Amino acid sequence: MDSIFAKRVQNAPRSFTRKILDVIDAKDIISFAGGLPDESLFPHELIKKEMNHSLDTMPRSIYQYSQAQGAIQLRSELAKTYTNSTEKEILITTGSQQGLDILCKAFIDEGDTIVVEAPSYLAALNLFALYNANIQEVPLTCNGIDTIQLEILFKTKKPKFFYAIPTFQNPTGWSWKKECKVEVARLAKKYNVIIVEDSPYNALKYEESIELGFEELLPKLSVTLGTFSKTLVPDFRIGWMRADEKFLKVFQNMKENTDLQSPKFFQYIVAKIMKDGNLSLHVKSLIEAYRVKRNAMAEALKKEFGKDIEYEIPTGGMFFWIKFDDKVDTMKLFDIAIEHKIAYVPGSVFYKDNKKNSYVRLNFTNATFEDIKIGIKRLNLALKEYNAKHE
Ligand SMILES: Cc1ncc(COP(=O)(O)O)c(C=O)c1O
What we know:
The chain is α/β, with parallel strands linked by helices. 44% of the residues lie in helices and 15% in strands.
């Protein structure tokens, strides 16, 4: 019988991380799988204080239907965080995931080419597949992407956009070097390709560095996606898009057709938290806490695996990207790891073709120190069992 569902339903892969969430519902599994913040660090008292204050001060119009663009209070605060932007260039979205959906709606007709890093963010890859995009990958290293390959793709495939996470990437934790960004901006101009910079992790920076954004390099031809999910709380579902007004008007229209507007109530509260300088203070405390967790995971990896694995210590974000010996298929290792009560995300899911590989993504922000120690030990035991079985 023909399916009643649209073709895209058949193209819709279920996110591997969601599947893992089902598996690890079993309580005693330690999970490094999800890209989750540490719940104990959610600033509940701050939110409570600002919420009480806002309930007394906020204009009644906040409750009213309005333009899809979002609360002016929040858009102005966000515009201040950029070098070249005004509130007219900001659209508030329901998480940055909605920003990705809006991009697809605005730019992708079936079969249109887009370029992504390899590896890239799983939920974005799934979404692009849902829109039947022709996804082309450009290899990523710890210094940035292969710009020679990128130029070939720009020249021969004429992509609609290049989707990238240049800072503290998901899944690798890597950041592009400045020269790479400058070259990508040059190629974007030459071939007239939009650069989409997804930037959820930029604020979680554990070492001194200056991150040059595409908003500065390419203000007219870039779209920046942002979110409060990693710096405040994911459940507010507040993200934003920054782009030139000619794009923003179209994005706004695409959003209106989906949900008319995002709720403004929490936008107002978040704007107040930003305006009072409390978001910066909170992010500072997150950085202190996450840096120590990152160090704990680096130490545990060194202790358990020594030189048997390859990785960079991430200078920001939430993830370690670990490479085991080439002969290890981390998708197969996953089942053994679950028996040892440890979960991670196998590297293959971050590539378009899901080809087997020997990488894993480990999240270090959500686990406790105890779990980091025990979890990495369990991972090593799982690897030993895998190696014994595959000798
Ligand atoms: C690269 C990237 N983009 C977008 C998102 C979605 O975030 P949000 O909660 O704002 O929808 C995530 C979440 O993990 C992410 O890692």
